Amino acid sequence: MTSGVVFPVSDGTNRSTSALGRAVVADALRAADPVGARAADHETNWRADYLVHFRRLVEAGLTSGDAARAIAAAGLASLHDRMRVAAADGAEVGLREAFDGTPAVELGTAVVAGDGEPDRELSLPYRGERLRGDALLRRLDAWTEAGVIEPGCAEAVRAVQANPDWLDLSDLRVAVLGAGAEMGPTRSLLRWGADVVALDLPRPGLWRDLLETVRRSGGRVHLPVPAGHDGGGDLAEVAGADLLHQLPAVAAWLRGVQGRLVVGNYVYADGAVNVRVCTAVDALTEHLRTHRPDTALSFLATPTDVFAVPAEAAAQAERRYHESSLLRTLRGPLRMVSAGRLLRRNYAPGADPGVCDSLVAQQGPNYALAKRLQRWRAAVARQQGATVSFKVAPPTRTRSVVKNRVLAAAYAGAPAFGVEIFDPATSNTLMAALLVHDLRNPPPVREHVWQEEADGAAHGGLWRMPYAPRSALGLAALLGLGGARG
Asked: Fewer CB near the last or first residue (10 Å), C or N of the chain?
């Protein structure tokens, strides 16, 4: 029997992920876009046709920041109202009641300090080199010119490089949820001497790797252990906590952390578990913000989602659409044989803003919902006055991507369309630098939520490529497979 944070029962004993996703999207749209809400409510093939509804969530809030924030708040409320917490004996409570009472287990804290000196110079690993100084600035310029990152991303990294004292985060406690994640900032923060509150599953191999990183660094890690543990022995064997099943205990543990808290959401799981664990993190976030209102938040957005993009990005994509190239020569025949599905232009001429739909059907509606609720939380928390670092991360060769054969092949072929795929070390260091920038320069509330989301994006080129990403995915995969065979 499934326990912990679970989907609600939708039919008899069935906990349908599709029913939950359909209902939450419909509830999010109901006030701002009643027609869209009705379409989501009556969608009969959610697993295949969810794409249009997730796009509509963005389009319905495109011209009104108030509407976009209302959609976000309604979506979060629906999710929290519907999700459940199940005990091993079958008893259930609502997600909102999960923090009532005394936790079934209690967590203590072990602290491990590194032996190294904090690194006070920003550097970036890139294709076998470590870029610093002028080399780093030249790489930022090259990425900006190629349309791989937005200008605001380069400006933020330049500011961190010019102010190395910002790397000293000793005044904060950065709680990294998903401390072992490939895209997470744990290693960079430790290298810069930060106090990292590390939370991840109780997996000894994961913790051994992390503790080895700590010992080589100039930082310090606070990790959860069973209450009463003396901090001796093999910490990797006892460290960790399970957000799905120990949510109240984790909440009590984080409430007790001394100093101003930053909560970074870097969790990931496959399939429906991703929604469950991201919902658990969101409930924890709301709980901590209630008890510790000065808590700052950090999120990484997937580039394979729907985003509104600035007019300048759309204009560059349009210029590229008309440039001479082999793809332009082949475009007409390919569109004809595919009934218009291949190589569609990315934006209508003059789009302001443009809507870049980079959703990948193979990732599925559970992945889309898990990532969307993070966007919703960022929008709502920022409006409430929280410091929020929300950044679109570049497409990256993470383990979760390369094990999907279609995505792995598409990533291999993506450079043919002007998209750069990043190595994990480059991505996580770049995104950690952007986190530092946002903690030292809290991003303001803007007129539109899409402007907040687009600020400093490092989308890898998806926003500025000439073709709608999904219309080029198949060709990119074919090119990638051909390259691999070659």
From this structure: C
